Amino acid sequence: MRLNALSDRPGATKARKRLGRGIGSGLGKTAGKGTKGQKARAGVAIKGFEGGQMPLHRRLPKRGFKNIFARKFNELNLGRIQQAVDSGLIDGKKPITVATLKEAGLIRRTKDGVRLLGQGNLTAKLAFEITGASQSAIKAVEAKGGTITLTSITGRERPPTDKIKSERRAAKRAAKAAPKGGKAKAKAAQAAQDEEGAQSSAKEEAPAKAKAGPEAAAEAPSAAKKPKPDVGEAAKPKANPAKKDKAE
Predict the structure, then answer these.
(1) pTM given for the model
(2) What CATH architecture is 74-150?
């Protein structure tokens, strides 16, 4: 065998496409691009354009949404944690935290915390300090005498303003749900309270006036004098006598 006799298997190589080699080649002149038009040019990306008509992807309605505030938890069942306690990976006498679960190899990344689920049998009395827990998990842990303390490790709780807004909305809903005439009753009760306050103040002022009677009588003569004109009042100008003409 000689080197010049070596060759690849049939079909192993393929000749490249040669463009513009005459009409007989099938790829001459326009080289398979057609004639004129937008698509005959290089770099055209029409995608969803439909000649000015509203494209299909905009005519169809939207479905669902993506919650940008969603949090990602590591989910663990009680049965898995019980196995780790039995095998000695976790010390059941100490509180079980997110860091403890990561050191034991039950979770790979912290993410937004750990959420405890209720599947599996729990036989030990354990204390958890985790991010979240289902109702079944809480009941199972408390049935064995354990405790679950929910703590956040990211600090992404809602601000207190949300609580204030929710209380205001609840108050508005309660006002709407109240029977008609509630506002009128409230106004009537307020008017009654104001009237009682006015009567009590009048009773307190009456003895004071009775005690001040003799003193007021002594000051009566001096009060009978004419009041002085206010300083702010402008003095009225006196009328000048009319001048007599010299001719008279």
Answers:
(1) 0.43
(2) Ribosomal Protein L15; Chain: K; domain 2 (3.100)
